[in-house]
């Protein structure tokens, strides 16, 4: 049946010049016997999945030849949306804008069919209308319940869903107003009728401790606890490895292997070793926990890991892919413990080329667990006490530094893009209250592990590609030209440009990043550039990795927390004995890997969104104590409704155009600016501004600023470059910096004079309004 599906699609894409009835299709394709008897069932399945489209005259055609597009809806809380096509055949096939009256009754993330009204040209977007909803995405919705006498309704937490869910009252479940609930949709919305649903779980009351994070977890369908049978299977795992398990493995327990991770890491899945060889080359050993030995195919552990797809690192907890007995125990490369590993030994020359490699199963014993902080203090800060305490490993750490620089230089020479965004970490107290925001920047220690893992991933991917075995690759395709045109428009504002937007090479983008490094516009250009690129994903085909400028790439290095890595290990293990696997097994892998890759990509995106939402929630909660205080910031976004301002600690908020009362401001998209009609004052990307924090909303994840002085001219940061040095940003300065400002993390006074002033002004305004009404 699968073969017949492919034959029909191939025929309709290349041979059929017009839509055909099923009978005409059978005649033109000259189908007979079994294929003819299966035809109608296959057509029904293809039509149900929107691989082919049925016209009102009962004829069938493929969407791309009927001015139709199949894709996923990305809705806005403003009522409109964009459909991201599943298949992009030419650079001009951009996302499709769907106005509010063209949304049908589709909801965020639904799979839909769109009729395209306006075709795109270079740099121009398309628009259209949704004509069919193929698959609903939001079968369960998390929100806040409100009760009335005869019915209730749930307002979704995710504002992009756009409409309340009607809850008929049945007299059985009495849920109080304000409760956080999970709703199962029983009837989908149609025209002006809202969706209907039934409450299947009450999470708690709005305002309860931890309720918002629990809501995020439920909204993204993230599992919290392991089923009993999975937990029991994990309990059956051994505490230590036996001599029998070591048989057939290379014994590397004599090597001084080390791990380098964050201080709070508990699942350690990668160890490294570097040795300088007599010929001047380096031997790099990368040792990855052999999780596939303990998690066998089709067991309950494997099925649970497959469903989860990834570990999820939320602001206050970790939702692991595997039970902790495995991830923190026998599968974690804990120092001083014998562990089974999948190993890659790579000989690397002074140009960063892998001239020889071996992939093999091993047994190792990590000699030392390092943290990123300790390695940084040894190699960068040259801490004498730490250096003295680690003399036996100092030579290896210095070799790691040299090899890291060699590998990075090689990546840069071939044109890889190297974004360096600081990571925001919110520190919580024991009650879950945010007490500090930490901006973590990548140091040499993180770069060492990153470069070593990258070269190991590339080596394994190339090895498996050459074996021609079905495999899971990590791919990153070339960007759409339309997004590159928009990026180029932004670059023109800062004196930069891309020579080609149709065939952009990663090296051209990295050249821009090198030029803007340290400048005020660095953050915004880097952010827009990143958003202009496609998302990396898992794929059963090798499509290359644009961002890394790599022909071959996979994920081999984290099988504890990523299911595709576990699959990579499993397939790699099958090649060790004979160098190949059976034809039957290849066919089975070829059939199952595309679905595994797709599901893993979807779970990865859900996890990443949940992680961002929990950080955003706690960031907003943290900023609530500083309402009324003054900050310095940089404009990192400009829209028709206001300007986004980023503080030095990474927190972002909005200055609404309605609060800019000194003039009427017009949005000039090409210049990424708001320009005053009378004053001609310009607020542009990269400008330094002084703002007052006026409002925070944890429910909406919003932070509102107002400009400290609308009448003062804000000198553009791009022109404020001190001579003879790197440009300086007007960030949030620390206490004692000479201007009376302070860092957000240092500020402690919740009842500042500024905050009182804001409250007092609000009270006076209310009083005046009452007097006017009288």
UniProtKB/TrEMBL annotation:
Q: Which GO terms describe its biological process?
A: mRNA catabolic process
Q: What Enzyme Commission number(s) does the record list for this chain?
A: 3.1.13.1
Q: What positions does the domain S1 motif occupy?
A: 628-708
**Gene Ontology CC terms:** cytosol
KW Cytoplasm (keyword) present: yes
Q: Does the keyword Nuclease apply?
A: yes
Q: What is its main location?
A: cytoplasm
Q: What does this protein do?
A: 3'-5' exoribonuclease that releases 5'-nucleoside monophosphates and is involved in maturation of structured RNAs.
Provide the alphabetized UniProt keywords.
Answer: Cytoplasm, Exonuclease, Hydrolase, Nuclease, RNA-binding
- Region annotation (Disordered) ranges: 718-774
Source superkingdom: Bacteria
- CDD domains in the record: S1_RNase_R (cd04471)
Q: Please note every region of biased composition (Basic residues).
A: 750-774
Subcellular localization(s) per the UniProt record: Cytoplasm
Q: Which reaction does it catalyse?
A: Exonucleolytic cleavage in the 3'- to 5'-direction to yield nucleoside 5'-phosphates
The name on file for this protein is Ribonuclease R
Family assignment? Belongs to the RNR ribonuclease family. RNase R subfamily.
GO MF annotation: an example: RNA binding
**NCBIfam families (alphabetical):** 3_prime_RNase, RNase_R
């Amino acid at each position: 049946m699968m073969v017949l599906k492919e034959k029909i699609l191939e025929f309709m894409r290349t041979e059929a010049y017009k839509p055909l009835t099923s009978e005409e299709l059978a005649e033109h394709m000259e189908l007979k016997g079994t294929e003819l008897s299966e035809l109608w069932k296959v057509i029904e399945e293809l039509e149900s999945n929107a691989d082919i489209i049925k016209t009102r005259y009962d004829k069938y055609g493929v969407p791309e030849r009927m001015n139709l597009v199949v894709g996923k809806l990305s809705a806005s809380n403003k009522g409109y949306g964009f459909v991201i096509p599943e298949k992009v055949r030419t650079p001009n096939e951009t996302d499709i804008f769907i106005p509010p009256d063209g949304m049908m009754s589709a909801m965020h993330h639904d799979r839909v069919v769109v009729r395209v009204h306006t075709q795109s040209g270079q740099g121009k977007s398309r628009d259209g209308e949704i004509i069919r909803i193929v698959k609903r995405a939001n079968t369960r919705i998390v929100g806040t319940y409100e009760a009335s006498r005869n019915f209730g309704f749930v307002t979704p937490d995710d504002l992009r869903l756009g409409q309340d869910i009607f809850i008929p009252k049945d007299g059985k479940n009495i849920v109080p107003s304000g409760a956080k609930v999970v709703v199962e949709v029983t009837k989908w919305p149609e025209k002006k009728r809202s969706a209907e649903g039934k409450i299947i779980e009450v999470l708690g009351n709005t305002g309860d401790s931890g309720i918002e994070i629990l809501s995020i977890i439920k909204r993204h369908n993230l599992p919290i606890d392991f089923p009993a049978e999975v937990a029991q299977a994990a309990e059956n795992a051994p505490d230590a490895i036996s001599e029998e398990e070591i048989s057939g493995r290379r014994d590397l327990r004599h090597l001084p292997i080390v791990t380098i991770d964050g201080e709070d890491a508990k699942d350690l899945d990668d160890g490294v070793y570097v040795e300088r060889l007599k010929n001047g080359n380096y031997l790099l050993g990368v040792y990855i926990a052999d999780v596939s030995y303990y998690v066998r195919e089709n067991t309950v552990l494997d099925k649970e890991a497959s469903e989860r797809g990834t570990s999820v690192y939320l602001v206050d907890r970790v939702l692991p892919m595997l039970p902790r007995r495995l991830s923190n125990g026998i599968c974690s490369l804990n120092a001083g413990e014998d562990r089974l590993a999948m190993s890659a030994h790579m000989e690397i020359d002074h140009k960063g080329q892998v001239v020889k490699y071996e992939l093999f199963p091993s047994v190792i014993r990590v000699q030392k667990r390092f943290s990123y902080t300790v390695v940084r203090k040894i190699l960068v800060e040259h801490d004498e006490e730490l250096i003295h305490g680690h003399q036996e490993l100092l030579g290896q750490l210095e070799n790691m530094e040299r090899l890291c620089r060699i590998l990075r230089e090689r990546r840069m020479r071939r044109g890889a893009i190297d974004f360096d965004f600081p990571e925001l970490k919110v520190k919580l107290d024991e009650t879950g209250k945010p007490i500090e925001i930490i901006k973590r920047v990548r140091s040499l220690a993180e770069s060492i592990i990153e470069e070593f893992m990258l070269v190991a991933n590339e080596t394994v991917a190339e090895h498996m590609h050459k074996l021609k075995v079905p495999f899971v690759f990590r791919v990153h395709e070339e960007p759409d030209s339309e997004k590159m045109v928009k990026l180029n428009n932004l670059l023109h504002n800062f004196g930069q440009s891309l020579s080609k937007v149709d065939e952009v090479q990663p090296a051209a983008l990295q050249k821009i990043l090198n030029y803007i490094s340290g400048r005020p516009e660095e953050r915004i250009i880097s952010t827009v550039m990143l958003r202009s690129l496609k998302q990396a994903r898992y794929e059963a085909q090798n499509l290359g990795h644009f961002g890394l400028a790599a022909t071959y790439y996979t994920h081999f290095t984290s099988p504890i927390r990523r299911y595709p890595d576990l699959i990579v290990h499993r397939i790699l293990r099958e090649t060790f004995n004979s160098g190949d696997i059976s034809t039957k097994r290849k066919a089975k892998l070829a059939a199952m890997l595309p679905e595994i890759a797709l599901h893993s990509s979807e779970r990865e995106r859900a996890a990443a969104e949940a992680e961002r939402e929990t950080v955003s929630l706690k960031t907003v909660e943290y900023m609530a104590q500083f309402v009324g205080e003054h900050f310095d910031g940089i404009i990192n976004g400009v829209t028709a409704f206001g300007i986004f301002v980023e503080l030095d600690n990474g927190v972002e908020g909005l200055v609404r155009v309605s609060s800019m009362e000194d003039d009427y401001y017009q949005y000039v998209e090409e210049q990424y600016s708001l320009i005053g009609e009378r004053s001609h004052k310009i607020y542009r990307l990269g400008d330094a501004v002084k703002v007052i924090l006026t409002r925070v909303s944890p429910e909406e994840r919003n932070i509102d600023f107002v400009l400290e002085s609308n009448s003062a001219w804000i000198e553009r940061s791009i022109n404020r470059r001190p001579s003879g040095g790197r440009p300086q940003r007007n960030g949030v300065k620390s206490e004692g910096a000479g201007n009376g400002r302070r860092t957000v993390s240092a500020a402690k006074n919740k009842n500042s004079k500024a905050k009182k002033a804001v409250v007092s002004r609000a009270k006076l305004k209310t009083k005046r309004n009452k007097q006017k009404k009288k």
